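Working notes for the structural subgroup meeting. M.R. asked for a predicted model of this chain before we commit to crystallization trials. I am recording the input and output together here so anyone reviewing the notebook later can reproduce the run.

Input as submitted:
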Amino acid sequence: MASGRASVVPVSRGPTRFCRPGGINRIGDTLNRAPPADSLPGMVAHHFHHVNAWVFDLDNTLYPPSARLFDQIEVRMTAWVMQALGLDRPEADRLRRHYWATYGTTLAGLMQEHGVDPGPYLTDVHDISLAHLEADPVLARRIAALPGRRIVYTNGCAPYAERVLAARGLGNLFDAVYGVEHAGFLPKPERAAFEAVFTADGLTPGRAAMFEDDARNLAAPHAMGMRTIHIAPDPLPAAHIHHHHADLTEFLAFLVP
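Returned structure, recorded in token form:
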């Protein structure tokens, strides 16, 4: 579990804290043609023999997109932008999307363009219901079987991530949970954000793998030497994506019993 480094935020077992600074569609470059089914796990696992650190994005990665948590978050983001900037709903929604596309997150755009205090924003937009999230014991078992260090790194905040992990039955599996606050509010896909978090964790990128639903957030990890896995309904052929699968639980079956 957590190594004790000051920068590492272990998974909380207590009340939620405020967000404050502090089958297969594609198996990437492992397949050029369809192999016999019984050879596929070994072919995939071969590319991970050196990995001793496993980095997981949170939203739409450690839970399925069908949970639609971001529908709730986006409503709250738009409402926050309306109130903070005095905009009507259509313009606030347009600006939210524009900042996400331009800066990586809506928050990054609000900070850059309007000097927004990130703490209240993060606390408010992540105050959503998780009542419909279900525990996934198969996913939990497969994550627990991965050899080495396991961390979560999200563009959300760590307290929100801890709530989601608990709801999914994954709360005791990770050595550390990092949010955007641990990168000085610099978001993925910025390489400096990854460098800040990985330096704090002591992770060696060349011996690590990254699981992520947003393909653009895999470019920097790939450039840093990580194995990259795109978890999303549809494959996106790109040089910085090594593997693709629609379901994290199913992909992990290629790596662990």
